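Project standup — Tuesday

K.O.: blocked on the structure for the chain from last sprint. Re-posting the sequence here as requested.
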Amino acid sequence: MMSLTSDKPAPRRAASRRWRDRLLLAALLVLVGAGLAGLAGATGWAESWAQIRGLSNAQVAGLLGLSALNYLLRAGRWHLLARRLGVPVGPGQSLRHYLGGFAMSVTPGRVGEFVRMRWIARETGWAAERAAPLALMDRAGDLAAMAGLMGLSVALAAGGVRGAVPVAALGFALAVMATRPRLLAGAITLAHRALGRAPRLFARARGAARLLTRFSHGPTLTVALLLGLAGWFAEGVAFHLLLGWMGAEIPLWRAVAIFLFATLAGGLTGAPGGLGGAEAAMVALLSLEGVGLEISVPATAVIRLTTLWFAIAIGLVAFPLAERAAGKAQVSR
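H.V.: unblocked you, prediction finished:
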């Protein structure tokens, strides 16, 4: 019988995957840059650049501040869920782990963010699969908050952005499945039967899914949802303010709906950080609202810089701190 594993040594396979991921990310960045440049060129570089230069330092600081508020609120949710799971970490550790994970936001499928499990394992002795439900609940929390907020924003936006409804429904459905242990374990079993390989990996995944019962606590889930709602609403407000500063008078809830739809749509493509999909959706939706390319293109570029790329910048600062702290904790244990 032919072996299912590659003949390459493990280190070589890992190196090959890293290079493949880097090339994929580089290609996506080139495509996004080329697309935005092409759109800006269609309206004239001068108009797009003038819109960006027209922002004051205070306005840029406001955008970054609202993004930072989002990250801090979601880090608080991470700590709340970690303590509910029983992970023996303090607020400072949770903040370090959460922000440091942002450095891996643009890995394919954002699987790189599971580095947080590695830090927890090294600092507390918990096995990575034992802490894995924490990452799953964090992602489910984002999906539930974004889906709920987008549904509310569509309802309050007087029927605007109707296409957001199915995306919100899909995001909410995924969040529900991710927080139902039996349903998720069943989906994992079906995937294993379909693929017919890696039984040990699927067994661990089923074990992690069963641990989700720890989160079946009404007050914890309520606070976690509220933190997520407040965090993502802050970034939606930032997008609304940015559009106003650039001369596009889009109502608050419609701007929030556009921002969340584009972010979710980009994430559902599976591309690292939603690159390409989020930008295309944002420009298209703004165009449907009557916003010209001379505003929609620079607005999209700025909001992505002050949200996704700002998070990555924070992650790159926090990552070595988290790695160093985890290393010291492992040595001392």
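K.O.: great, moving the ticket to review. Confidence is low (pLDDT under 50) at residues 1-8. The longest helix spans residues 293-332.
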